[in-house]
Amino acid sequence: MPQLPTLLIQVVVILLVARLVGWIFRRIHQPQVIGEMAAGILLGPSLLGWVSPAISSALFPIESLGFLNSLSQVGLLFFMFLVGMELDGRRLLERRHTAVLTSHVSIIFPFLLGTLAALYLYPRLSDERVKFVHFALFLGAAMSVTAFPVLARILTERRLLGGEVGAVAVACAAVGDVTAWCLLAAVVVLVRAYDSLAPLWLTVFGSAAYIAAMLLVIRRVLIGLQRMYEKRSAITQDLMALILLLVFGSAWVTEQLGIHALFGAFLIGVIMPKEAGFKRALSGKLEDLTVVLFLPLFFAFTGLRTRIGLVHGGDMWFYCALIIAVAIVGKFGGAALAARLTGMSWREAGAIGILMNTRGLIELVILNIGLEIGVISPAVFAMMVLMALVTTVMTAPLLDLIYPPRLRRRDVSDSGAARAA
Amino acid sequence: MPQLPTLLIQVVVILLVARLVGWIFRRIHQPQVIGEMAAGILLGPSLLGWVSPAISSALFPIESLGFLNSLSQVGLLFFMFLVGMELDGRRLLERRHTAVLTSHVSIIFPFLLGTLAALYLYPRLSDERVKFVHFALFLGAAMSVTAFPVLARILTERRLLGGEVGAVAVACAAVGDVTAWCLLAAVVVLVRAYDSLAPLWLTVFGSAAYIAAMLLVIRRVLIGLQRMYEKRSAITQDLMALILLLVFGSAWVTEQLGIHALFGAFLIGVIMPKEAGFKRALSGKLEDLTVVLFLPLFFAFTGLRTRIGLVHGGDMWFYCALIIAVAIVGKFGGAALAARLTGMSWREAGAIGILMNTRGLIELVILNIGLEIGVISPAVFAMMVLMALVTTVMTAPLLDLIYPPRLRRRDVSDSGAARAA
Q1: Domain that holds residue A245
Q2: A29-to-A169, A363, A394, A397 alpha-carbon distances in Å
Q3: Which of A20, A283, A321, B213 has most Cβ atoms within 10 angstroms of its Cβ?
Q4: Against a cut of 0.80, is the pTM above it?
Q5: What is the CATH number of the domain that holds B117?
Q6: B11 and A248 in contact by Cβ < 8 A?
Q7: For A1, which of B4, B249, B372 is closest by C-beta distance?
């Protein structure tokens, strides 16, 4: 087992750096998770590998990355499951008037802008092995993401969850999450079908059958599990085993269908009964280990793949700035305009726009998938990681600027929707 | 990431089979964990690989085993930490009269028998690449193990924890655990020093310095962490991160010292403050995922290495039977005699002997280490896995036979010492 010492020291270093940078970010009024994302970049070739290639290759030898990856993938499955659990269909229905319009505009607008930008960027940043349609669709999908967990964390920290702005933002982000993942699933299916990994008709019909089975059959199983919980008021180990089986099983099915394993874990979370006690008990079992241990491993793994050095020279930095600008204009502009149209004040609509512009770690998840299926190059990956960081970091200070505490309408009922961040 | 689908289906199959066989074992009044151990063997070359090599190699391709292993190693670290947490020095002191004598005899006697058996077995089952001294010491250490977690689980299920027999058994097993791990650490150090992986003096002095630092410095840090817990009455994510850092850090140090990573995780657990609320909150965060997800992965990984087919022909089965007999006579005989000498009735002393004879999964952990450092061959490994299974399976029925419920003295205060099983 020569890999064990390496894995141990990797975990120690990653946890240390993640907590440290996370703590620094908290001190400058940024959510901890952004610091942890940044910590991952620092441990990769962009900083550590550049300052000291010797330390970097001793700490992260290439043959060890598979193990780090398998750990972080398992953690991401739990994480997407927890994110799915935070989506509550009933709460969305209450807000459907504003939420549906705002969220759809805040997806369609950046999606269109993203595909437009692809027209300019494709000949400059891609090659003929990637089809234009795939590149454009992926860019559009990646532009239209909102990081539901980071958003919820920011709202909780600023005590905005109970107010109108917070409620609309959460609802929009939730609808947006589901839509963005559907878009992404479509892109993955198209690209993989082109590589002829699985026949397209199988993926399409299989996915439809799978979603139907989830809603009609598995949903009932889950309600049965919730009753098991209520009988004992505790998550027994049998119950836990069944839930883990469903999460891993669903992830495996979606992976086989050619979508992506994370989609399956997310969907199980979405259709989970949302009774408060059950939800709290279940996330209590999974959340801490996921957030404290596995997510930093994922950030580090992402950071190891991010080579900011690939973005060099005036042209490249221009493309990078363009990507960031398109992301901000598309998401902030689209969401703010739509919110204003539904009757919010400019200030409130602006706040919604800023909040929806948070890309956070969901963007990192999507970018990793894009890199794996080869639809974006390492250089585009680095640019878009920067975009994710910039749009996430700007959220908190801009929010305090446009929508300062003294102007906030709010009621007191802070909900638990921010737990999985 | 071609390994992700494989890893997912492995987890699904392992969880399913482990729960299923575990459930069957519960129906025949055996602890679930023994069923899960057996499930691991069934998935390995001893059954699945023999019935259908095609399915076996599709499900567990050799190149995927590293990932399974890295997951199960992380889980074992948590598990050994939890086992260490269950050891409570103060409770041991209360029982020192019976516990110290019984536990030491119940270690020394099987250890001596084991080394004696090695005289006969070494020329027949080992080769000159392994020194006789190492082989004999390892056999002795492996014979003298008691599975603290399985023992605690059996005592809880039979409501024996509060009684005299239960208390003495737990105390003995606890002392035995620590002694056996020290023995094992010594063997690992000797063998590795022979392979000149780390200079012996460094290991010896380093270990002494490490243990001193743990008792004098880290112990205080841990008491500080417990105070952090008491202030909030909750394990915050910062606190969780610090504890995980200590567990992984300590594991890394012991691994570097040439002992073994698991020893470091175990020791952090041992010196953890044992205040009930803190202990319960902390194991609540780690236990379920460890027991439900990671341990079955470890059992499956062990099973994949166990080739019962290597034990073939009359001679081999005779050696195997000899190992099992020596293990039972040594541990059961030694513990029962010592307990009788301290003034227990024959029946009670017999019950103690049977309980101490439980090898359980701690034996599997030790055997895996032995196989890794090359001190036992795959054939001896298979024999000793059988020994672990036999001695563990026989515990519950024999206990009910020798010490049936109607004869049991007991008081009511069942403690929580059986949580980590």
Answers
A1: 3-407
A2: 20, 21, 11, 8
A3: A283
A4: yes
A5: 1.20.1530.20
A6: yes
A7: B372
